[in-house]
Amino acid sequence: MTSERDAWLALTTEEAIDPELPICDPHHHFWDRPESRYLLDELIEDISGGHNITETVFVECSSMYRADGPELSRPIGETEFVQGLAALSASGGYGDTRVAAGIVSYADLSAGNAVQEVLEAHIAASQNRFRGVRNSSCWDADSTIRSYKSPMRGLLGDAKFREGFGALDRLGLSFDAWLYHPQLTELADLARAFPGVTIILDHIAGPLGIGTYSGKEEEVFELWKSGMDELATCPNVVIKLGGFGMPLGGFEWHKRDAPPSSQDIADVMGPYYMHCIEKFGVDRCMFESNFPVDKVSSSYTVLWNSFKRMTSDFSAHDKAALFRDTAVRAYRLDQG
Description:
This protein is α/β, with parallel strands linked by helices. It has one domain: Metal-dependent hydrolases (TIM Barrel, Alpha-Beta Barrel), CATH 3.20.20. Helices cover 37% and strands 15% of the residues. It is built from 10 helices and 10 strands. The strands form 2 sheets. The chain has an 8-stranded parallel β-sheet. Strands 2-3 form a two-stranded antiparallel ribbon. α7 links the parallel β8 and β9 (237-241). The radius of gyration is 19 Å and the shape is globular. The two termini are 31 Å apart. 47% of the residues are buried.
């Protein structure tokens, strides 16, 4: 993040609400790019704002792939990279948080059965932390909002992709899904085809509010709800509640004179997250930060305050599930 962005974020500051509540942040990234650096020091600075972050889960972001070797195996470098950062955290020199207690990397499942060898190499690179993979399937007819990886249309139903998906089942690995709200029925079909694989849907399927979806919030919300209702019938699917800091939703937090408050965020995000909790239950929902991506719109402290505001009247059991227990179980962090 640039100093200009940090100065903007500093315009809205809050004390952490309920600072003792244990939190597992199940979705953040690490990278070191010419235009942006987000490594262990940067994450520790963000999480030091008062919330009790006990563990985190790293999710792939095409970072530190191997520079040579077979193309299919190059993403193993990301697991090796994050395993090293996790080991630094485990030394105790960076605080009590178990950073990257779980690692979700990338493997090209559309390679079919050939991907099993790659998955086994990921496991070997991090026997105590590697938990699964994410393949983006974000596709939309509006070419201006497709994923940066430009996946093929209908990826989740592709025969070769499903052949590779079978390796996750055989190896006991989970799958993180990242897609847009019109694709929810495709994910439900995949979940029914592989009931033994835990599927974790990132960012509540990215309800779109830009491009051809601009100005259609009510229409999008109804279509999204219909898709989520169908997906909720698949018991092997759990949901990450977050990702609204990204510009995809069309809320334009990042264009304000000052960042939104936690109450501002709760007011907008609440209807989406409460619908997920109603349909999936607290034992299949988990809050996430999606940092540093969502840092474009709010600070870490303000973001988690918004989640706590939404659930202020929930029971202790339900809060424990949403903020930590579901994530720990879904990513098997108690097995590390």
